Amino acid sequence: MKRTKRGMEIILLILIFAFSTANAQKVETVDGVRVVHNGDQGKWGKDSKISLELVKTLGNINAEDENIAFYMPTDIVFDAQGNWYILDTGNHRIQKFSPDGKYLDTIGSRGQGPGEMSYPVSLDIYPEGNLLVSDPNNQRVQILLPDGKEYKTIRMTQGTIGAARILTTGQLVMNASGGFVMIGMGEEDKDKELPKLIKIIDMEGNTQKEFGTQRDYKNMMLNRMGNQVLFAVDKDNNIFLVFPFQNRIEKYSQEGKLLWRSDRELNYSMAPPKNKGKREVRGGNVRIEAPQMNRCANGIAVDDQGRIWVITLIRQVKEDEKVGQNISVQMTNGHRSMNVKVTGNTELEETDMYKLQIYDSEGVLLGNIPLKHFVDGITINKDRVYLVDKLRGTKCYEYKIVEK
User: Fold this and answer.
1) Rounded to two decimals, what is the model's pTM?
2) Is 80 exceeded by the pLDDT of residue 186?
3) CATH topology of domain 27-403
4) What are the domain boundaries of the chain?
5) Quick one: three-class SS letters along the chain?
Protein backbone atom coordinates (compact mmCIF):
# COMPACT_ATOMS: atom_id res chain seq x y z
CA MET A 1 0.00 0.00 0.00
CA LYS A 2 1.36 3.40 -0.99
CA ARG A 3 1.51 5.90 1.86
CA THR A 4 1.17 9.63 1.29
CA LYS A 5 3.70 12.10 2.60
CA ARG A 6 1.00 13.49 4.90
CA GLY A 7 0.28 10.00 6.25
CA MET A 8 3.95 9.38 6.97
CA GLU A 9 4.16 12.68 8.84
CA ILE A 10 1.21 11.71 11.05
CA ILE A 11 2.75 8.32 11.85
CA LEU A 12 6.05 10.00 12.71
CA LEU A 13 4.32 12.46 15.02
CA ILE A 14 2.49 9.62 16.78
CA LEU A 15 5.76 7.75 17.32
CA ILE A 16 7.48 10.88 18.64
CA PHE A 17 4.57 11.55 20.99
CA ALA A 18 4.58 7.95 22.29
CA PHE A 19 8.34 8.07 22.88
CA SER A 20 8.22 11.44 24.65
CA THR A 21 5.29 10.31 26.84
CA ALA A 22 7.18 7.21 27.98
CA ASN A 23 10.16 9.37 28.97
CA ALA A 24 8.23 12.34 30.34
CA GLN A 25 8.62 13.75 33.81
CA LYS A 26 5.84 15.89 35.17
CA VAL A 27 6.92 18.18 38.00
CA GLU A 28 4.47 19.94 40.29
CA THR A 29 4.46 21.55 43.73
CA VAL A 30 2.16 20.05 46.35
CA ASP A 31 1.89 21.73 49.76
CA GLY A 32 5.17 23.48 49.07
CA VAL A 33 7.02 20.26 48.14
CA ARG A 34 8.47 19.43 44.73
CA VAL A 35 6.80 16.26 43.38
CA VAL A 36 8.17 14.44 40.32
CA HIS A 37 6.01 12.00 38.34
CA ASN A 38 8.38 9.94 36.17
CA GLY A 39 7.63 8.10 32.95
CA ASP A 40 8.73 4.52 32.36
CA GLN A 41 11.99 5.05 30.43
CA GLY A 42 13.54 8.10 32.08
CA LYS A 43 15.59 10.90 30.51
CA TRP A 44 18.05 8.50 28.89
CA GLY A 45 15.32 6.58 27.10
CA LYS A 46 16.33 3.10 25.94
CA ASP A 47 19.99 4.13 25.54
CA SER A 48 21.21 3.91 29.15
CA LYS A 49 24.30 5.95 29.96
CA ILE A 50 25.40 3.36 32.54
CA SER A 51 25.91 -0.40 32.41
CA LEU A 52 27.04 -2.96 34.99
CA GLU A 53 29.88 -5.42 34.52
CA LEU A 54 29.88 -8.47 36.82
CA VAL A 55 33.15 -8.76 38.74
CA LYS A 56 32.49 -11.65 41.13
CA THR A 57 30.03 -13.28 43.51
CA LEU A 58 30.41 -14.43 47.11
CA GLY A 59 28.32 -17.15 48.72
CA ASN A 60 25.95 -19.83 47.52
CA ILE A 61 23.03 -21.66 49.02
CA ASN A 62 24.76 -25.00 48.28
CA ALA A 63 28.25 -23.93 49.44
CA GLU A 64 30.17 -26.61 51.34
CA ASP A 65 32.51 -24.02 52.87
CA GLU A 66 30.67 -22.78 55.95
CA ASN A 67 32.41 -19.41 55.69
CA ILE A 68 30.47 -18.59 52.52
CA ALA A 69 27.36 -20.61 53.36
CA PHE A 70 25.29 -17.54 54.14
CA TYR A 71 21.75 -17.65 55.52
CA MET A 72 19.73 -14.50 54.84
CA PRO A 73 22.68 -12.13 54.10
CA THR A 74 21.36 -8.62 54.57
CA ASP A 75 23.98 -5.89 54.41
CA ILE A 76 27.51 -5.17 53.12
CA VAL A 77 30.02 -2.51 54.20
CA PHE A 78 33.68 -1.85 53.39
CA ASP A 79 36.63 -0.60 55.41
CA ALA A 80 39.39 1.73 54.19
CA GLN A 81 41.38 -1.23 52.87
CA GLY A 82 38.46 -2.45 50.74
CA ASN A 83 37.69 -5.49 52.92
CA TRP A 84 34.09 -6.75 52.80
CA TYR A 85 31.94 -7.16 55.91
CA ILE A 86 28.78 -9.14 55.16
CA LEU A 87 25.98 -9.20 57.71
CA ASP A 88 24.93 -12.86 57.69
CA THR A 89 21.64 -12.32 59.50
CA GLY A 90 20.34 -15.90 59.65
CA ASN A 91 23.67 -17.13 61.02
CA HIS A 92 23.91 -14.25 63.55
CA ARG A 93 27.37 -13.22 62.44
CA ILE A 94 29.47 -10.88 60.31
CA GLN A 95 31.79 -12.43 57.71
CA LYS A 96 34.92 -10.53 56.72
CA PHE A 97 36.58 -10.99 53.31
CA SER A 98 39.55 -9.40 51.55
CA PRO A 99 38.92 -7.20 48.47
CA ASP A 100 39.52 -10.24 46.24
CA GLY A 101 37.00 -12.35 48.17
CA LYS A 102 39.30 -14.36 50.46
CA TYR A 103 37.74 -15.27 53.82
CA LEU A 104 39.45 -13.47 56.71
CA ASP A 105 37.35 -13.64 59.88
CA THR A 106 34.01 -14.30 61.56
CA ILE A 107 32.68 -11.67 63.95
CA GLY A 108 29.88 -12.44 66.40
CA SER A 109 27.61 -15.37 67.15
CA ARG A 110 24.09 -15.94 68.36
CA GLY A 111 23.34 -14.68 71.84
CA GLN A 112 22.65 -11.74 74.13
CA GLY A 113 26.16 -10.99 75.36
CA PRO A 114 28.74 -8.46 74.17
CA GLY A 115 29.53 -8.99 70.50
CA GLU A 116 26.67 -11.45 70.10
CA MET A 117 23.49 -10.87 68.10
CA SER A 118 20.12 -12.35 67.16
CA TYR A 119 18.88 -11.83 63.60
CA PRO A 120 20.55 -8.40 63.24
CA VAL A 121 18.97 -6.14 60.61
CA SER A 122 21.70 -3.73 59.49
CA LEU A 123 25.43 -3.07 59.43
CA ASP A 124 27.41 0.15 59.00
CA ILE A 125 31.06 1.11 59.50
CA TYR A 126 32.87 4.09 61.00
CA PRO A 127 35.88 5.66 59.23
CA GLU A 128 38.23 4.13 61.82
CA GLY A 129 36.79 0.65 61.15
CA ASN A 130 34.42 0.11 64.08
CA LEU A 131 31.20 -1.69 63.13
CA LEU A 132 27.66 -0.57 63.92
CA VAL A 133 25.17 -3.46 64.26
CA SER A 134 21.45 -2.95 64.76
CA ASP A 135 20.18 -5.84 66.88
CA PRO A 136 16.42 -5.30 67.49
CA ASN A 137 15.77 -8.72 69.02
CA ASN A 138 18.19 -7.82 71.80
CA GLN A 139 16.79 -4.28 72.04
CA ARG A 140 20.10 -2.64 71.26
CA VAL A 141 22.56 -1.21 68.79
CA GLN A 142 26.15 -2.37 69.20
CA ILE A 143 29.41 -0.74 68.19
CA LEU A 144 32.08 -3.40 67.75
CA LEU A 145 35.82 -3.04 67.31
CA PRO A 146 37.21 -4.45 64.04
CA ASP A 147 38.10 -7.68 65.89
CA GLY A 148 34.50 -8.05 67.11
CA LYS A 149 34.97 -6.99 70.72
CA GLU A 150 32.39 -4.68 72.24
CA TYR A 151 33.22 -0.99 72.11
CA LYS A 152 29.83 0.40 73.11
CA THR A 153 26.27 -0.84 73.46
CA ILE A 154 23.33 1.53 73.02
CA ARG A 155 20.31 0.19 74.87
CA MET A 156 16.98 1.01 73.26
CA THR A 157 14.32 0.62 75.93
CA GLN A 158 11.65 2.77 74.27
CA GLY A 159 10.19 2.65 70.80
CA THR A 160 11.05 0.33 67.95
CA ILE A 161 14.49 -0.48 66.58
CA GLY A 162 15.15 -0.65 62.87
CA ALA A 163 18.09 -0.41 60.51
CA ALA A 164 20.69 2.16 61.57
CA ARG A 165 23.14 4.31 59.59
CA ILE A 166 25.91 6.62 60.77
CA LEU A 167 25.78 10.37 60.16
CA THR A 168 28.94 12.47 59.94
CA THR A 169 27.74 14.26 63.09
CA GLY A 170 28.16 11.03 65.06
CA GLN A 171 24.41 10.61 65.43
CA LEU A 172 22.50 7.67 64.05
CA VAL A 173 19.55 7.65 61.68
CA MET A 174 17.07 4.79 62.05
CA ASN A 175 13.86 3.68 60.38
CA ALA A 176 10.72 2.83 62.29
CA SER A 177 11.08 -0.94 62.49
CA GLY A 178 13.28 -3.92 61.80
CA GLY A 179 12.80 -6.74 59.35
CA PHE A 180 10.02 -8.63 61.15
CA VAL A 181 7.41 -5.90 61.51
CA MET A 182 4.45 -8.10 62.43
CA ILE A 183 6.11 -9.80 65.39
CA GLY A 184 4.78 -8.64 68.74
CA MET A 185 1.90 -6.71 67.17
CA GLY A 186 -1.03 -6.62 69.54
CA GLU A 187 -4.51 -5.21 69.74
CA GLU A 188 -3.26 -2.40 71.98
CA ASP A 189 -1.57 -0.84 68.92
CA LYS A 190 -4.85 -0.10 67.17
CA ASP A 191 -5.56 3.37 68.50
CA LYS A 192 -2.01 4.66 68.76
CA GLU A 193 -0.93 7.59 66.66
CA LEU A 194 1.09 6.48 63.66
CA PRO A 195 4.82 6.95 64.39
CA LYS A 196 7.15 8.92 62.19
CA LEU A 197 9.15 7.05 59.55
CA ILE A 198 12.65 8.16 60.55
CA LYS A 199 14.33 9.16 63.80
CA ILE A 200 17.70 10.65 64.69
CA ILE A 201 19.20 9.23 67.88
CA ASP A 202 22.24 10.13 69.93
CA MET A 203 24.88 7.75 71.24
CA GLU A 204 22.88 7.12 74.39
CA GLY A 205 19.82 5.97 72.46
CA ASN A 206 17.80 9.14 72.98
CA THR A 207 15.57 10.23 70.12
CA GLN A 208 16.48 13.77 69.13
CA LYS A 209 14.27 14.18 66.11
CA GLU A 210 11.52 12.31 64.23
CA PHE A 211 10.11 12.98 60.78
CA GLY A 212 8.40 11.42 57.77
CA THR A 213 4.65 10.85 57.57
CA GLN A 214 3.06 7.43 57.36
CA ARG A 215 0.10 6.74 55.13
CA ASP A 216 -2.95 5.82 57.18
CA TYR A 217 -4.64 2.80 55.61
CA LYS A 218 -7.24 2.77 58.41
CA ASN A 219 -6.15 -0.77 59.23
CA MET A 220 -3.52 -1.81 61.75
CA MET A 221 -1.90 -4.57 59.69
CA LEU A 222 -1.90 -2.54 56.47
CA ASN A 223 -0.31 0.36 58.34
CA ARG A 224 2.45 -1.88 59.66
CA MET A 225 3.22 -3.46 56.31
CA GLY A 226 2.43 -0.62 53.93
CA ASN A 227 4.63 1.89 55.74
CA GLN A 228 7.79 -0.17 55.75
CA VAL A 229 10.63 1.98 54.49
CA LEU A 230 14.19 1.42 53.27
CA PHE A 231 16.68 4.26 53.35
CA ALA A 232 20.15 5.48 52.41
CA VAL A 233 22.29 8.43 53.50
CA ASP A 234 24.57 10.54 51.29
CA LYS A 235 27.83 12.31 52.20
CA ASP A 236 25.90 15.47 53.16
CA ASN A 237 23.63 13.56 55.57
CA ASN A 238 20.60 13.81 53.29
CA ILE A 239 18.30 10.84 53.82
CA PHE A 240 16.60 9.03 50.93
CA LEU A 241 13.57 6.80 51.49
CA VAL A 242 11.97 4.20 49.27
CA PHE A 243 8.75 2.39 50.17
CA PRO A 244 8.50 -1.31 49.25
CA PHE A 245 4.68 -1.17 49.25
CA GLN A 246 4.05 2.39 48.04
CA ASN A 247 5.04 4.08 44.79
CA ARG A 248 7.00 6.67 46.74
CA ILE A 249 10.60 7.90 46.93
CA GLU A 250 11.52 10.84 49.18
CA LYS A 251 14.52 12.98 50.08
CA TYR A 252 14.89 14.63 53.49
CA SER A 253 17.50 16.96 54.92
CA GLN A 254 19.19 15.95 58.17
CA GLU A 255 16.89 18.44 59.89
CA GLY A 256 13.88 16.47 58.69
CA LYS A 257 12.68 18.77 55.92
CA LEU A 258 11.04 16.99 53.00
CA LEU A 259 12.96 18.22 49.94
CA TRP A 260 11.14 16.30 47.22
CA ARG A 261 8.92 13.33 46.52
CA SER A 262 9.09 11.15 43.42
CA ASP A 263 7.10 8.32 41.85
CA ARG A 264 7.39 6.33 38.63
CA GLU A 265 5.27 4.45 36.14
CA LEU A 266 4.64 0.83 37.21
CA ASN A 267 3.09 -2.13 35.40
CA TYR A 268 0.86 -3.05 38.33
CA SER A 269 -1.39 -1.42 40.90
CA MET A 270 -0.21 -0.25 44.32
CA ALA A 271 -3.75 0.16 45.64
CA PRO A 272 -4.50 -1.32 49.10
CA PRO A 273 -5.46 -5.00 48.84
CA LYS A 274 -8.80 -6.54 49.72
CA ASN A 275 -6.96 -9.14 51.81
CA LYS A 276 -5.95 -7.11 54.85
CA GLY A 277 -4.36 -10.02 56.71
CA LYS A 278 -5.34 -11.55 60.03
CA ARG A 279 -4.02 -12.13 63.52
CA GLU A 280 -5.18 -15.14 65.56
CA VAL A 281 -4.36 -15.92 69.19
CA ARG A 282 -4.74 -19.53 70.30
CA GLY A 283 -3.56 -20.23 73.80
CA GLY A 284 0.00 -18.99 73.99
CA ASN A 285 0.47 -19.02 70.22
CA VAL A 286 -0.05 -16.13 67.82
CA ARG A 287 -0.57 -16.75 64.12
CA ILE A 288 -0.17 -13.80 61.76
CA GLU A 289 -1.13 -13.81 58.09
CA ALA A 290 0.35 -10.74 56.41
CA PRO A 291 -1.70 -8.63 53.97
CA GLN A 292 -1.22 -9.53 50.30
CA MET A 293 0.21 -6.22 49.09
CA ASN A 294 1.97 -5.66 45.77
CA ARG A 295 5.66 -4.88 46.22
CA CYS A 296 7.50 -2.31 44.09
CA ALA A 297 10.97 -1.81 45.69
CA ASN A 298 13.67 -3.83 47.44
CA GLY A 299 16.44 -1.36 48.16
CA ILE A 300 18.00 2.08 47.75
CA ALA A 301 21.56 3.47 47.64
CA VAL A 302 23.33 6.71 46.72
CA ASP A 303 26.55 6.90 44.70
CA ASP A 304 29.40 9.43 44.95
CA GLN A 305 27.78 11.62 42.28
CA GLY A 306 24.57 11.93 44.27
CA ARG A 307 22.56 9.65 41.99
CA ILE A 308 19.93 7.50 43.66
CA TRP A 309 19.75 3.80 42.75
CA VAL A 310 16.49 1.97 43.46
CA ILE A 311 15.79 -1.75 43.10
CA THR A 312 12.38 -1.77 41.40
CA LEU A 313 10.13 -4.68 40.51
CA ILE A 314 9.16 -4.89 36.84
CA ARG A 315 6.34 -7.29 37.72
CA GLN A 316 5.02 -9.19 40.69
CA VAL A 317 6.41 -12.55 41.80
CA LYS A 318 5.13 -15.67 40.05
CA GLU A 319 3.79 -18.63 42.01
CA ASP A 320 6.83 -20.82 41.31
CA GLU A 321 9.17 -17.98 42.40
CA LYS A 322 7.65 -17.39 45.80
CA VAL A 323 9.56 -17.78 49.04
CA GLY A 324 8.41 -17.08 52.57
CA GLN A 325 9.65 -16.81 56.13
CA ASN A 326 8.14 -18.92 58.88
CA ILE A 327 8.76 -17.11 62.16
CA SER A 328 8.27 -18.69 65.56
CA VAL A 329 8.60 -16.82 68.84
CA GLN A 330 8.90 -18.23 72.35
CA MET A 331 8.96 -16.39 75.67
CA THR A 332 11.13 -17.89 78.41
CA ASN A 333 11.63 -16.08 81.73
CA GLY A 334 10.72 -12.79 80.11
CA HIS A 335 13.15 -13.26 77.21
CA ARG A 336 11.90 -13.56 73.66
CA SER A 337 13.52 -16.21 71.46
CA MET A 338 12.86 -16.11 67.73
CA ASN A 339 13.58 -18.56 64.93
CA VAL A 340 13.20 -17.90 61.21
CA LYS A 341 12.98 -20.52 58.49
CA VAL A 342 12.97 -19.64 54.80
CA THR A 343 10.52 -21.71 52.76
CA GLY A 344 9.67 -22.01 49.07
CA ASN A 345 11.75 -22.27 45.90
CA THR A 346 15.03 -21.08 47.42
CA GLU A 347 17.27 -22.54 44.70
CA LEU A 348 15.81 -20.46 41.88
CA GLU A 349 18.35 -17.68 41.25
CA GLU A 350 17.51 -16.29 37.81
CA THR A 351 14.53 -14.06 37.07
CA ASP A 352 13.46 -11.10 34.92
CA MET A 353 11.51 -9.50 37.76
CA TYR A 354 13.94 -6.72 38.75
CA LYS A 355 15.64 -3.64 37.37
CA LEU A 356 17.82 -0.91 38.80
CA GLN A 357 16.42 2.56 38.35
CA ILE A 358 18.82 5.50 38.51
CA TYR A 359 17.55 8.95 39.55
CA ASP A 360 19.31 12.29 39.68
CA SER A 361 19.63 14.23 42.93
CA GLU A 362 16.28 15.97 42.29
CA GLY A 363 14.23 12.79 41.87
CA VAL A 364 14.13 12.69 38.07
CA LEU A 365 14.44 9.19 36.61
CA LEU A 366 17.47 8.92 34.35
CA GLY A 367 17.31 5.30 33.20
CA ASN A 368 16.87 1.60 33.89
CA ILE A 369 19.25 -1.34 34.04
CA PRO A 370 17.54 -4.78 33.86
CA LEU A 371 18.79 -7.51 36.18
CA LYS A 372 18.86 -11.28 35.63
CA HIS A 373 18.74 -12.51 39.22
CA PHE A 374 16.86 -12.02 42.47
CA VAL A 375 17.97 -9.08 44.57
CA ASP A 376 16.97 -7.96 48.06
CA GLY A 377 19.45 -5.20 48.86
CA ILE A 378 21.99 -2.79 47.41
CA THR A 379 25.22 -1.10 48.53
CA ILE A 380 27.43 1.23 46.49
CA ASN A 381 31.12 1.70 47.24
CA LYS A 382 33.07 3.99 44.89
CA ASP A 383 32.64 2.59 41.34
CA ARG A 384 31.10 -0.69 42.49
CA VAL A 385 27.52 -1.80 43.01
CA TYR A 386 26.91 -4.71 45.40
CA LEU A 387 23.61 -6.59 45.25
CA VAL A 388 22.42 -9.11 47.81
CA ASP A 389 20.21 -12.11 47.09
CA LYS A 390 19.01 -12.76 50.63
CA LEU A 391 16.43 -15.53 50.38
CA ARG A 392 17.20 -17.63 47.31
CA GLY A 393 20.78 -17.96 46.11
CA THR A 394 22.01 -16.36 49.38
CA LYS A 395 24.88 -14.66 47.61
CA CYS A 396 26.40 -11.24 47.04
CA TYR A 397 27.14 -9.83 43.57
CA GLU A 398 29.85 -7.28 42.84
CA TYR A 399 29.40 -5.17 39.69
CA LYS A 400 31.58 -2.44 38.21
CA ILE A 401 29.79 0.72 37.14
CA VAL A 402 30.62 1.45 33.50
CA GLU A 403 29.89 5.03 32.42
CA LYS A 404 29.18 5.21 28.69
Assistant:
1) 0.91
2) no
3) Neuraminidase (2.120.10)
4) 27-403
5) CCCCHHHHHHHHHHHHHHHHHHHCEEEEEECCEEEEEECCCCCCCCCCCEEEEEEEEECCCCCCCCCCCCCCEEEEEECCCCCEEEEEHHHCEEEEECCCCCEEEEECCECCCCCCECCCCEEEECCCCCEEEEEHHHCEEEEECCCCCEEEEEECCCCCCCCEEECCCCCEEEECCCCCCCCCCCHHHCCCCCCCCEEEECCCCCEEEEECCCCCCCCHHHHHHHCCCEEEECCCCCEEEECCCCCCEEEECCCCCEEEEEEECCCCCCCCCCCCCEEEEECCEEEEECCCCCCCEEEEEECCCCCEEEEEECCCCCHHHCEEEEEEEEEECCEEEEEEEEEECCCCCECCCEEEEEECCCCCEEEEEECCECCCEEEEECCEEEEEECCCCCEEEEEEEEEC
